[in-house]
């Protein structure tokens, strides 16, 4: 699908849900996509991108940011504490804050450098053992701890289990965000972004629908 088509679908879903048109940001997920494809999407005027790995983003985005103004890059994948400093330099927003140790490290680095990307707390809404994210029972406490650390937490993020109806997870995430006074909702991918918009997503993370299938990992 073209960017125009996806944006039109987002706008339609916003209208249907009585939300302001344009309320949802589209993050173009460029992980593992060839640079030429990413350059095409930049040339079309899109400026918000998502990546899964610090290393991959470090090889790609400093160069693109020199060529194109106003680019923002979001980290969507898990972050190891030993890469936190590099991640804070590279990314404008981090969607994968998921544990106390990482919160403490980000807080220390933010104090030291005087700046910090906006942060989403990742919630493991399906309580899947293999998946990252804060468990449901721990969300309220973790949000409070991050605020005590003066971290700029702007919202919650989830990746629903593949075999379940995502809307249930989106609704749950929205409820948790409201309860914690958080406005941001990072939810919805290529297969379900319209359902996420219907349930209040403030950003959707769309990869393959924009760029085509990702080359398999080597
Ligand atoms: C890869 C990825 C996406 C994009 O997935 P698509 O199905 O290609 O749209 C979104 N969010 C996260 C966290 C991802 O890792």
Automatic annotation (TrEMBL):
This protein's UniProt keywords: Pyridoxal phosphate
InterPro entries: Ala_racemase_N (IPR001608), PLP-binding_barrel (IPR029066), PyrdxlP_homeostasis (IPR011078)
UniProt entry tagged with the keyword rRNA processing: no
Pfam families given in the database record: Ala_racemase_N (PF01168)
Family annotation (Gene3D superfamilies): Alanine racemase
Domain Alanine racemase N-terminal residues, every copy: 3-215
Residue numbers bearing the N6-(pyridoxal phosphate)lysine modification: 31
Cofactors: pyridoxal 5'-phosphate
SUPFAM superfamilies according to UniProt: PLP-binding barrel
One MF term in the entry's GO annotations: pyridoxal phosphate binding
Keyword Electron transport listed: no
Domain of life: Bacteria
Matches recorded under HAMAP family: PLP_homeostasis
UniProt cross-references to NCBIfam families, sorted A to Z: YggS family pyridoxal phosphate-dependent enzyme
PANTHER family for the chain: PROLINE SYNTHETASE CO-TRANSCRIBED BACTERIAL HOMOLOG PROTEIN, PYRIDOXAL PHOSPHATE HOMEOSTASIS PROTEIN
Family named by the database record: Belongs to the pyridoxal phosphate-binding protein YggS/PROSC family.
Function per UniProt: Pyridoxal 5'-phosphate (PLP)-binding protein, which is involved in PLP homeostasis.
Name the UniProt record assigns to this protein: Pyridoxal phosphate homeostasis protein
Native source organism of the sequence: Shimia haliotis
Taxonomic path: Bacteria, Pseudomonadati, Pseudomonadota, Alphaproteobacteria, Rhodobacterales
């Amino acid at each position: 699908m073209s960017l125009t088509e996806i944006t039109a679908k987002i706008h339609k879903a916003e209208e249907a849900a009585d939300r302001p048109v344009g309320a949802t940001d589209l993050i173009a997920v460029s992980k593992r996509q060839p640079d030429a494809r990413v350059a095409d999407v930049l040339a079309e005027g899109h400026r918000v991108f998502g990546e899964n790995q610090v290393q991959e983003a470090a090889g790609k985005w400093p160069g693109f940011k020199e060529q194109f103004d106003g680019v923002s890059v979001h980290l969507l994948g898990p972050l190891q504490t030993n890469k936190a400093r590099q991640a804070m330099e590279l990314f404008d927003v981090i969607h994968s804050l998921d544990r106390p140790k990482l919160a403490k490290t980000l807080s220390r680095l933010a104090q030291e450098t005087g700046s910090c990307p906006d942060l989403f707390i990742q919630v493991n809404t399906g309580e899947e053992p293999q998946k990252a994210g804060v468990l449901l029972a721990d969300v309220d406490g973790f949000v409070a701890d991050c605020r005590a650390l003066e971290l700029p937490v702007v919202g919650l993020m989830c990746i629903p289990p593949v075999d379940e109806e995502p809307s249930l997870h989106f609704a749950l995430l929205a409820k948790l965000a409201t309860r914690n006074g958080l406005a941001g909702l990072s939810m919805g991918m290529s297969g379900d972004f319209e359902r996420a918009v219907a349930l209040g997503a403030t950003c959707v993370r769309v990869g393959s629908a924009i760029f085509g299938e990702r080359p398999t990992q080597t």
